[in-house]
Amino acid sequence: MTTYAAVYYYEAHPNKEEDYTVHVFFPDLQAVGLPAITTGDNRDDAKEAAEDFLAISMDMAADEEILLPVPTPIEKIELADFIESEDIKPFRIELDYVTV
Asked: How do beta strands 37-40 and 3-12 pair?
């Protein structure tokens, strides 16, 4: 099993049928040039999408001979840097681990 830290951030959609979208971002995947984000309609959907996404990313890294980094501990994730670089304005942010 492999575990990576993920940033879950919630984007509001006040004028759409869905109230919000949950984006899941993997800083460690981005650091090695892999796609690093997926989404879900709610927290459970986002977690399931994140697990699938991480498994696919790990397969992609193996196929392309990309060495995955040692997972960053959650307490070392710099949220301020991440949020300032995104166009999305989250109303809630959570950190969690995703394991596949």
From this structure: unpaired
